[in-house]
Amino acid sequence: MFGHVFSYRLKCLVRDRDLVFWTLIFSILLGTMFHVAFGHLTTESEKFQPIEVAVVDNEDYRNDPSLQAILEELSSAGQNHMLDPVYADEKGAEELLNEGAVSGIITAGEPVRLTVKEPGIYQSILKMILDEHLQTTKTVANIISRNPQVVSDLIEGMQSENGYRRDYTEQISFSGVVPNINLVYFYALLAMACMHSGFWGLRNAIDIQADLSDLGARRSVAPTHKMVVVLADSAAALVISFFEILILLAYLSLALGVKFGSQIGYVMLTCLAGCIAGVSYGSFIGTLVRGHEGVKTGILIGSTMAMSFLAGLMWVDMKYIVSVKVPFLSYINPAALIADAFYSLYVFDTHRRFFINIGMLCLISAVFCVASFAILRRDEYASI
Amino acid sequence: MIIEIQSLVKRYGNLVALDHFNLEVSEGEIVGLLGPNGSGKTTLINCVLSLLKYDKGTIRVFGKEMRPDAYDIKQRIGIVMQNVAVFKELRVDENVDYFCGLYVKDAAARRQLVDEAIDFVELDAFRKFYPRKLSGGLLRRLNIACGIVHKPELLILDEPTVGVDPQSRNSILEGIRELNRQGTTVLYTSHYMEEVEQLCNRVVIMDQGKPLATGTIEELKAMVNSGETVVVEIYKLESEDLDRIQQLPNVSRAYYEDDHLTVYFDGGLHNLLNLLDYLKSREISFNRVFSQQPTLNDVFLEITGKQLRE
């Protein structure tokens, strides 16, 4: 009996073109739109561009080897290429600044001066470089004046592979990947698609209740245990929604190049948990909300969009704001949990945060299931 | 006894939908529940099917108390709802097979039953069609096929012909008669008196949740004051003339509707002659004239003072 109901339910749902559009095609279109809108943000425009800076080529500059050395180091090609210096006399440098061709003018002397036209990020970086340079030269001068015998050690140290300064912290990426904040959009999109599985759950809830549909009434008078029908319908909805999410995942990953990391098993586990949450949420809305089908659909769409918004679908900072200002909301919002599970799989090399997300999702799904099954198992109604 | 309902009460808030309703349906009968819209027919059906909770009374089907989990009883019942209840995404044969599968587990037996049901409602040419491609009449037939496919011993039909063209209606009624000949007991609700007259052995006339009269068609008609009813086709009749006609000898009631003047006479002689004389004297042109036997509508009118379709 379960197989009979399940197979026909599968056929019914697969052939429901409206629902297939909202649960699959809509997400694919939205993903494509995201890709067109900001898919390349991290490839070109976010790369750091060396700062154009004018250097006054005067007597003081020629007599300041340390400044020359630092400018040469920061303008040479490679990882430290931060500056593109343009050497000019004082007047020429001012003209370049006024034309906007450079972000500032470095004038050697005692002290070294930085002239800028307006404040900005590049100007702040220039100031930071010069502050660093001044502080270092002062320190070295101070050491030499107080302890002249260490000069040779100091020079040796400065000429060694690590230079005179050593990094005690190292910048590494988790899981061997480059963190990319724009991925949050795509993860939130997947979360939205999972929550849109609620459409299947909603339709199931309507088609099984005698007070909501004629089909529900007809199925209720059949000699089949209602829970068998409910479980078969739910299983069919889950299979379809999981299959759809896998299609979306393949499209995002293979066609749009969205990164999900290498832990494909856990990625699929997240999809499955997301689909269970979505289908059970749809059943929950379908059974708990009293009113016309249109009202239930409206509430389902509105609430899933709100969840997706809070998970960072429309504005990526929202996810961060919610986690800082209202952290509780992040733990009860299934869309945020799904998006965060994907993100933590991609970024972190431990699974603690991932399993917290999956655990919370399972808990929320269980609440939805218990609440809706308690109502769906009713056999008699007060009115039809 | 196939169905026994005793003192059934169903309330929706302050509204009493069924008021101490009693009904018995014997094996092999076609019992018609006749009443205007809102009289409680569908509520009664839903209570019998254990879809609706009721406030008081007992319902026994096949000699057992009807409960939501009485699957052995449900196995023997077929239901055709007032509204078409099929899956729009499944083809005709798939819909029939789906509902058959809820009753019959054996796949081979199911295939045969599905074929028989589709043949029975004459949908063989449409078995691969989706419901949206079917006309209203064909859709109703599919609705019936889904209800009868498992060959139920008791078939409950709730206004199965609403919105159906006359040809499809006749086909549906003939099908129900055939099922009855094959041994199915039928409980049929309608507000179309012609259908009930055509189909049912026994009729329960109900209104406001109460059974007003029960009996065979002949028994019910016998309840009506045995007079004469004359219908005259007239294209224009002033209200003043209608008033005067009502004052003619032996006229108990007269009304003019849809270009037809209907006049009820209590008895007496030369009633038709008197009526025609009056029409001629007033130079009222008329077309056909015919006398009419009492209908179930007349019975309803007699009992309640209002027409079935008011």
CATH topology of the largest domain in chain B: Rossmann fold
| Number of domain units of chain A | 2
Strand portion of chain B: 25-35%
**Using DSSP, what is the number of strands of chain B?**
14
Helix content estimate of chain A: 55-70%
Q: Which CATH C-level class of the largest domain in chain B is it? A: Alpha Beta
Structural class of chain B: alpha/beta
Mean pLDDT of chain A: 84
Strand order of the largest sheet of chain B: 6-7-8-3-9-10
The CATH superfamily of the largest domain in chain B is known as P-loop containing nucleotide triphosphate hydrolases
Strand order of the largest sheet of chain A: 2-1-3-4
Order of helices and strands of chain A: HHHEHHEHEEHHHHHHHHHHHH
- Listing every helix as H and every strand as E from the N terminus to the C terminus, the arrangement of chain B reads EEEHEEHEHHHEHEHEEHEHEEHEH
Q: What amount of the residues of chain A lies in strands?
A: under 5%
pLDDT averaged residue by residue of chain B: 88
Distance between the amino and carboxyl termini of chain A: 27 Å
The class by helix and strand makeup of chain A works out as mainly alpha
How would you name the oligomeric state of the polypeptide chains in this document? heterodimer
Helix share bin of chain B: 25-40%
Number of helices of chain B: 11
What number of domains of chain B? 2
